[in-house]
Design brief:
single chain; 9 helices; 8-stranded mixed β-sheet; binds NADP nicotinamide-adenine-dinucleotide phosphate; 32% helix; alpha/beta; Rossmann fold; STEAP_metalloreductase; globular; 8 strands
Length: 225
């Protein structure tokens, strides 16, 4: 059992929290408006959940999921995340986030931006390529024939092992896409983004095996953001 800190408790954060509690983990939720605004979600999740500030959620988590709009990544608390495994779900939507020149010209990736902001954390990109409702509906126990896989990317092998174990507990296999600099392979508009798991907005979604995910990652073409 692990404590999962969530910085951001919206579509993806609340879905990860639900899966984590179902898997027996404790969760500490946070958002921008304060713990009092998360009481309904905490009540739904039960005694394994509590709400806190982002700094408290960061300090409490063995694994911390950063799942805020990309424009807010610099608000993520730095000091309490030193030495921790941080999962970065964030995607770049300039119409929502504003224009980031280094993403537009392809000189960096969203995962590397968060890693620069958190130099002592071990950032692993994950959960960013699946619609949150498919993340909820496609979770399956280990060994299921229709289990789906999710890609990860990161520079620290121990952090990637921890995330692989965490994903396994939630109901997913993992495909290692390589170092953090390779996380463009799973960014918006690449073959592995959303579509392998079904049509955006339509449930219940389509299971995507590790082989499907591996082939989609390999088919990605380098383009700016
Ligand atoms: N939606 C999806 O299916 C999906 C799938 C994969 C990846 N993603 C990516 O994952 C990220 C989160 O997406 P989402 O759909 O879950 O977004 P969302 O539903 O809008 O939730 C965003 C969460 O972040 C919190 N937040 C915003 N600014 C913050 C700050 N400065 N400090 C702390 N918390 C802050 C919000 O809190 P308040 O409400 O209190 O402001 C909210 O809890 C985005 O980068 C998105 O592109 C989304």
């Amino acid at each position: 059992m692990t404590t999962i800190g969530l910085i951001g408790s919206g579509n993806i954060g609340s879905t990860v929290a639900r899966l984590a509690v179902a898997a027996g983990h404790d969760v500490v939720l946070s958002n921008s408006r304060g713990p009092q605004t998360l009481q309904d979600l905490v009540a739904e999740l039960g005694p394994k959940a509590r709400a806190a500030t982002p700094a408290e959620a960061a300090a409490a988590g063995d694994i911390v999921v950063v799942t805020v709009p990309l424009r807010a990544y610099r608000d993520v608390p730095v000091e309490p995340l030193a030495g921790k495994v941080v999962i970065d779900t964030n995607n770049y939507y300039p119409e929502r986030d504003g224009v980031f020149d280094a993403l537009e010209d392809g000189s960096t990736t969203t995962g590397e931006l968060l890693q620069q902001h958190l130099p002592q954390a071990h950032v692993v990109k994950g959960f960013n390529n699946i619609w949150f409702d498919h993340l909820r509906t496609l979770a399956r126990p280990a060994g299921s024939a229709d289990r789906s896989a999710l890609p990860i990317a990161g520079d620290d092998p121990a952090a990637k092992r921890a995330v692989t174990e965490f994903f396994d507990s939630l109901g997913y296999d993992t495909v290692d896409a390589g170092p953090l600099a390779e996380n463009w392979r799973a960014q918006r508009d690449t073959p592995v983004y959303v579509t392998p798991y079904g049509v955006f907005g339509e449930l219940p979604g389509t299971p995507a095996s590790a082989q499907v995910v591996r082939e989609a990652l390999a088919a990605a073409k380098p383009t700016a953001a």
